[in-house]
């Protein structure tokens, strides 16, 4: 656990040092759980969004995109259930005055138990080697069985309490498990109470409920209220989807773990409209399709897993998370939800306007069911950074390097042009000529602010797949040294070949094919 904590601290420090993420309003000591993306961060973030948009919209004839406004009519959030049900269970520690989510305190206790189970399994794996049968060990080892029973009991109690909104039971679980304040160690807790997560503001200068607006807590509702507009103008037939990338806002009780949980964040969501009764088929389809999208980036399948929800949201009849193994453990990266006809049905009822689809094959009208895929851009960013950042020894006794082994298609800078001698006019002119040529095709960088070794290290740290070094030999034969970030292999290539070689590795087609 200590090692994971160190890895996370290194990641956060790397993000600031190399211009990926800064604390918002840092000159005023920052604003809690709000972050700004720096020069390389915004490039990586845009590439992630581009990959999602192309794979979701460009590759599907029956999925189109919109960009809905952040502000919506307040009745939208009444119909969606957010006004009445978008709450987290809040608990305060009377001694430390710190606030926590009650369910998170319990889940962290479950994580500790799960960690004990994994520790026992790892010890047994080392002891028995190739003959180790993990499935049998889990069911026969007394200590593991006891831990598993304890874990399942807590999980079931938590799921039931959350589903029923049983706040006293959440408090009782915390007391039964003797959960202490992580900072002070105190067990002096208040009662658990509900905390609505929506930010509210006023429309113009109108005071009171009639002028109350909300910053949207999710992007999905902008899709639902535009269902008929999109369907009619694009002449889509069910099944079809509507995709959107946009900002959302949640007044989190405890926003922590860097950009994993923020108060202002960005979502990539797609709502897929289907015939009632077909939700199971499409739910399974999108589960597999979304996992394939993640694996295409080269992420190990040991870093990703499905996790079914124990307690379903008010709108869902099935829900699963794709979890990623962050430095602080497996946590939700993306959600796939079967939302039934909850949203469209409620908007139809509250607005008094018919929101239905006429199915020409069935010759009937109905309110479509929906399967949703929703992924946080910021969480995907954090997953890619934590998966890619590696510290390793460079062969040949050149010392250690921090290298960001991002998929080349996502890398903020695709190629760096480095003159061997910045004071040699002919080399500089040739290097700048290569830069001006390649910048028409890729995001490239020209750098002459240090020795070649230091320039290589800097580009490794921001994840640049290729470095091109222009030297005296280049002046004679028009060849340059092309260095590969991952293999460290250096080859001489003609300048006319550069664009083709780089494009083959960094083109988004490598991910979409």
Describe the structure.
The chain is 41% helix and 24% strand. With 513 residues, it is an alpha+beta fold. It has a domain at 394-512: Rossmann fold. The chain has a 7-stranded mixed beta sheet, sandwiched between helices. A 5-stranded mixed beta sheet has the order 20-19-21-22-23, sandwiched between helices. The chain has a 3-stranded antiparallel beta sheet with strand order 5-4-6. β22 (479-484) and β23 (490-494) form a beta hairpin. α5 runs antiparallel to α7, α6 packs across α7 and α7 runs antiparallel to α8 (167-176). It is globular and about 75 Å long.
The end-to-end span amounts to 38 Å
Q: Can you tell me the CATH superfamily of one domain? A: Anticodon-binding domain
- CATH T-level topology of one domain: Rossmann fold
CATH architecture heading of one domain: 3-Layer(aba) Sandwich
Features:
Rossmann fold, globular, alpha+beta, 513 residues, seven-stranded mixed sheet, five-stranded mixed sheet
Précis, in short:
By secondary structure, the protein is of the alpha+beta class.
How is the topology of this model organized?
Blueprint: H1 2-17, E1 21-23, E2 35-37, H2 39-58, E3 63-65, H3 75-79, H4 82-85, E4 87-92, E5 99-101, H5 102-128, H6 134-140, H7 142-164, H8 167-176, E6 193-196, E7 200-202, E8 212-214, H9 220-224, H10 227-234, E9 240-249, E10 264-274, H11 279-295, E11 304-308, E12 318-326, E13 329-340, H12 342-351, E14 357-359, E15 364-366, E16 369-376, H13 377-388, E17 389-393, E18 400-404, E19 415-419, H14 425-438, E20 444-446, H15 452-462, E21 466-470, H16 472-477, E22 479-484, E23 490-494, H17 498-506, H18 509-512
Parallel strand pairs: 3-9, 19-20, 19-21
Antiparallel strand pairs: 1-2, 4-5, 4-6, 7-8, 9-10, 10-16, 11-12, 12-13, 13-16, 14-15, 17-18, 21-22, 22-23
Helix pairs in contact: 2-13, 5-7, 5-8, 6-7, 7-8
């Amino acid at each position: 656990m200590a090692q994971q904590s160190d890895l996370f601290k290194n990641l956060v420090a790397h993000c600031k040092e190399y211009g990926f993420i800064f604390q918002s309003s840092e000159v005023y000591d920052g604003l809690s759980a709000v972050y700004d993306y720096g020069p390389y961060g915004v490039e990586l973030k845009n590439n992630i969004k581009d990959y999602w948009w192309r794979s979701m919209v460009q590759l599907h004839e029956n999925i189109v995109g919109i960009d809905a406004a952040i502000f919506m009519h307040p009745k939208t959030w009444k119909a969606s259930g957010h006004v009445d049900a978008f709450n987290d269970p809040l608990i305060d520690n009377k001694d430390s005055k710190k606030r926590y989510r009650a369910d998170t305190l319990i889940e962290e206790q479950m994580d500790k138990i799960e960690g004990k189970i994994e520790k026992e399994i790892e010890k047994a794996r080392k002891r028995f080697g190739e003959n180790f049968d993990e499935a049998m060990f889990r069911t026969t080892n007394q200590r593991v069985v006891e831990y598993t029973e304890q874990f399942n009991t807590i999980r079931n109690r938590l799921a039931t309490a959350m589903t029923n909104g049983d706040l006293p039971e959440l408090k009782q679980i915390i007391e039964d498990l003797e959960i202490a304040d992580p900072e002070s160690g105190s067990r002096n807790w208040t009662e658990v109470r509900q905390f609505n997560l929506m930010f509210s503001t006023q429309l113009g200068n109108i005071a009171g409920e009639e002028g109350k607006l909300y910053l949207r807590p999710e992007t999905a509702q902008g899709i639902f209220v535009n269902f008929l507009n999109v369907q009619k103008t694009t002449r889509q037939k069910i099944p079809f989807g509507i995709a959107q990338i946009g900002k959302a806002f949640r007044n989190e009780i405890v926003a922590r773990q860097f950009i994993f949980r923020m108060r202002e964040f960005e979502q990539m969501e797609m709502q897929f409209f289907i015939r009632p009764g077909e939700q199971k088929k499409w739910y399974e389809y999108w589960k597999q399709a979304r996992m394939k999208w993640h694996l295409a980036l080269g992420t190990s399948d040991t870093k990703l897993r499905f996790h079914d929800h124990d307690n379903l949201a008010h709108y869902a009849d099935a829900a699963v998370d794709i979890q990623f193994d962050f430095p602080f453990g497996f946590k939700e990266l993306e959600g796939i939800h079967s939302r039934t006809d909850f949203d469209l049905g409620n908007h139809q009822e509250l607005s008094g306007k018919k929101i239905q689809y006429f199915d020409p094959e069935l010759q009937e009208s109905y309110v479509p069911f929906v399967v949703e895929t929703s992924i946080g851009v910021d969480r995907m960013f954090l997953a890619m950074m934590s998966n890619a950042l590696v510290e390793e020894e460079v062969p040949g006794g050149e010392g250690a390097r921090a290298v960001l082994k991002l998929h080349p298609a996502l890398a903020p800078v695709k190629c760096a042009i480095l003159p061997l001698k910045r004071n040699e006019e002919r080399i500089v002119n040739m290097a700048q000529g290569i830069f001006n040529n390649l910048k028409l095709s890729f995001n490239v960088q020209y750098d002459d602010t240090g020795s070649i070794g230091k320039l290589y290290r800097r580009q490794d740290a921001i994840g640049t797949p290729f470095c091109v070094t222009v030297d005296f030999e280049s002046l004679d034969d028009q060849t340059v040294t092309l260095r590969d970030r991952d293999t460290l292999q250096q080859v001489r290539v003609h300048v006319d070949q550069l664009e083709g070689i780089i494009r083959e590795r960094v083109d988004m087609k490598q991910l979409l094919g």
